[in-house]
């Protein structure tokens, strides 16, 4: 055992000894290379100093003259290359950079050869003129030697081609791209360069052409002016009249600043909405239809809005000049061609120069707002039907658009729409009258105080002033209780204003049943829609009168919290099918979130009105685009109709609570209520049935799941000490009320409300 072990030990020692000696030799050799590299680097530094300085003594001057004779004017680069090469050897990186160093040395030697080509004789290889060697000319003796053989083999042209090839190879070698990628990038660069040259040449051609046209115009004007000058010179002491020059057409960038300011002083640019006289008619004279149970309210119940003084044209022109100057400072050429002054905003119509991107103007909204020292700038690019960009700036003095003015206009009184709706005024001052039957359903949204409730009041008041109860009926749902309760008792109501969320879903279900009943009547009378039915009823007195029905929900979010699934289903069915039978939905909410305005509801309600909202996300939820976050509030709205590509900015008509109260009191005093008792009974029956079906422990179950923020059948079994079947029924009832989410397998159901919402309910 000992012999074997000792033999193994000796074998190990003999195997290790050669490795140690090899490693020792390698260390010594590597040490020698590094030492030699350091010496060469030091020598290269000395050579660099000798060549650069003239005060290095006899040895320094001699070495400097020697290297200058060898390498000529490029002698200073030799010690730099020498230092770099041995520095890489010292750092053991020379192999990695071998190809680059070879390319650099080759380029250096070819540079010497090109510099020495004028001093090379054709007889011998080193027959460089002595004067060139001595006088530090060209590439020195070394350049002459390389140049002689290079020119002998490939000539002058080949020398330059080889030189360019080596430089290109070095660039590619240094760059992070492969040869293929580099040439593709180079090709793309040439393409872009060609496009730029083409664009510049076209622009230069247009400028030259315009200058030629301008000179021709000046010449013709000069010729036309000569006879008039002669005639005026023959007059008496009166000074000669100057001939009127026609301004030649020039591009906007050639116009001086003074001319632009002069153009802006033209009052024809500014169109004040007050200068447009709204044509009025007598609303009560127009409505001479006789109805036994309804008397139209007089217009004098409404107040006239006291308009302030006219606009300051100088201030408007100053802002137009600031807009042009600001855009010009960002390299955008354009001209203000028209200014529309509205009640709350002023629209400056900018005609951009050819080649200006519209997106560049839109992106400067904040910069324009800073220059004008105002907020709420909105840019409409382009204005529909025009080749202009609309820059909408808030007025310093905002004015109210009165509801009386809009309903007294000819556009409203002479409207042939079935259910006209007085919305307000556009930026240009035109009264905007929309038709509810063409919408056919409307979604209204906006933050608190933006004008949403006033808009609902103007819709109802437009109906009261234009239609009798036999023509239009109203179904008002007001979960907030205080907004629409003032209309209780008017004859247009199908039933009293519904404030109970439980009755709200039942009333929507009644609207669905009424829709189905009307379609059966259409089938019996062989008509397609309510217009055809009304035409047939004109000749047949036995046919039932079917008025239009407008369903108004003032706060959708409250209904979605109580019975989300039912309300969404009912609204979707009505929105999809009720248009042809004369039932129209108007839904308002101040919380435009995706859980309130769901995708299904949005898809079936094409017309939207958005008042001021707090964020771009809310604006996109309502209008599918941004812009509503820049509105000014107090009736400033964007109206996106079903037949328009872009929303229209409108200042909504204002009607106060006192005016509404006076009109409602007048209608109540002159007309009797005419509720649909059958509809009321059906809704009460549905609510009673729902209450009877509700479990006695439902309220306690709601408290439990809201406190724990989790809901499952097993949890209710433990907490309420009930059986599985009863707990399952309670979960189903909670799902119908929108308190818990749907079934998710083994996971607990999601709780959709919190403690605050439950307390509000």
UniProtKB/TrEMBL annotation:
<feature type="region of interest" description="Disordered">
    <location>
        <begin position="1"/>
        <end position="26"/>
    </location>
</feature>
<dbReference type="InterPro" id="IPR041027">
    <property type="entry name" value="FtsK_alpha"/>
</dbReference>
<protein>
    <submittedName>
        <fullName>FtsK/SpoIIIE family protein</fullName>
    </submittedName>
</protein>
<keyword id="KW-0067">ATP-binding</keyword>
<keyword id="KW-0472">Membrane</keyword>
<dbReference type="GO" id="GO:0016020">
    <property type="term" value="C:membrane"/>
</dbReference>
<dbReference type="Pfam" id="PF17854">
    <property type="entry name" value="FtsK_alpha"/>
</dbReference>
<dbReference type="InterPro" id="IPR036388">
    <property type="entry name" value="WH-like_DNA-bd_sf"/>
</dbReference>
<keyword id="KW-0547">Nucleotide-binding</keyword>
<keyword id="KW-0238">DNA-binding</keyword>
<feature type="transmembrane region" description="Helical">
    <location>
        <begin position="102"/>
        <end position="120"/>
    </location>
</feature>
<comment type="similarity">
    <text>Belongs to the FtsK/SpoIIIE/SftA family.</text>
</comment>
<dbReference type="GO" id="GO:0005524">
    <property type="term" value="F:ATP binding"/>
</dbReference>
<feature type="transmembrane region" description="Helical">
    <location>
        <begin position="70"/>
        <end position="90"/>
    </location>
</feature>
<dbReference type="Pfam" id="PF01580">
    <property type="entry name" value="FtsK_SpoIIIE"/>
</dbReference>
<keyword id="KW-0812">Transmembrane</keyword>
<feature type="transmembrane region" description="Helical">
    <location>
        <begin position="140"/>
        <end position="163"/>
    </location>
</feature>
<feature type="domain" description="FtsK">
    <location>
        <begin position="429"/>
        <end position="620"/>
    </location>
</feature>
<feature type="binding site">
    <location>
        <begin position="446"/>
        <end position="453"/>
    </location>
    <ligand>
        <name>ATP</name>
    </ligand>
</feature>
<feature type="region of interest" description="Disordered">
    <location>
        <begin position="232"/>
        <end position="262"/>
    </location>
</feature>
<feature type="compositionally biased region" description="Basic and acidic residues">
    <location>
        <begin position="250"/>
        <end position="262"/>
    </location>
</feature>
<dbReference type="InterPro" id="IPR018541">
    <property type="entry name" value="Ftsk_gamma"/>
</dbReference>
<feature type="compositionally biased region" description="Basic residues">
    <location>
        <begin position="7"/>
        <end position="26"/>
    </location>
</feature>
<keyword id="KW-1133">Transmembrane helix</keyword>
<dbReference type="InterPro" id="IPR003593">
    <property type="entry name" value="AAA+_ATPase"/>
</dbReference>
<dbReference type="InterPro" id="IPR036390">
    <property type="entry name" value="WH_DNA-bd_sf"/>
</dbReference>
<dbReference type="GO" id="GO:0003677">
    <property type="term" value="F:DNA binding"/>
</dbReference>
<dbReference type="Pfam" id="PF09397">
    <property type="entry name" value="FtsK_gamma"/>
</dbReference>
<dbReference type="InterPro" id="IPR050206">
    <property type="entry name" value="FtsK/SpoIIIE/SftA"/>
</dbReference>
<dbReference type="InterPro" id="IPR002543">
    <property type="entry name" value="FtsK_dom"/>
</dbReference>
<dbReference type="InterPro" id="IPR027417">
    <property type="entry name" value="P-loop_NTPase"/>
</dbReference>
